[in-house]
Amino acid sequence: MSKNDILNQIDQVLESRKSEDGDNSYVASLYEKGLEKILKKVSEEATEVVMAAKDIEHNGDKNHLVYEIADLWFHTQILLAQQGLSSQDVTTELERRFGLSGHTEKANRSK
Predict the structure, then answer these.
(1) Other CB atoms closer than 10 Å to residue 10's CB: what's the count?
(2) In terms of residue numbers, what domain contains 96?
(3) Residues near 94 by Cβ (< 8 Å), separated by ≥ 6?
């Protein structure tokens, strides 16, 4: 299974959770609670990523950072799905940017 396949599989699961009961599915419960709850979870996970990265200086545990980034990615995929988007939309944008200077890409956004 390629790395992109796992993102697509997660997208499919997240889409299927839209029709499930929140009592039976964590993702469905987030959908039921709405955008604000999903944004709060993304924010919490982003904070945990920052904290895990800072902790590496103290404890050297890079695995914890990977774990927290996986949580962040997952919750951003929930946000994408809730908004009718998918990981494919993000990978398409990353492909568009590949090989493009960050300065050039930023300048293009401000036009």
Answers:
(1) 18
(2) 3-109
(3) none
- Residue written as token pair 């396949």: 5
CA angle 44, 46, 25 (to 5 degrees): 55
What CATH number did the domain enclosing 58 receive? 1.10.287.1080
Q: Quickly state the pLDDT bin for 81 (edges 50, 70, 90).
A: very high
* pLDDT(74) > 80: yes
Q: Does the global pTM surpass 0.70? A: yes
30 exposed, middle or buried (CB, 10 Å; 0-12, 13-18, 19+)?
Answer: buried
Q: How far is CA 89 from the centre of its chain?
A: 12
Q: What pLDDT does 14 receive? A: 98
Taking residue 81's Cβ as centre, other Cβ atoms within 10 Å add up to 24
User: For the chain, how many structural domains are there in total?
Assistant: 1
* Pairwise CA distance, residues 81 & 78, whole Å: 5
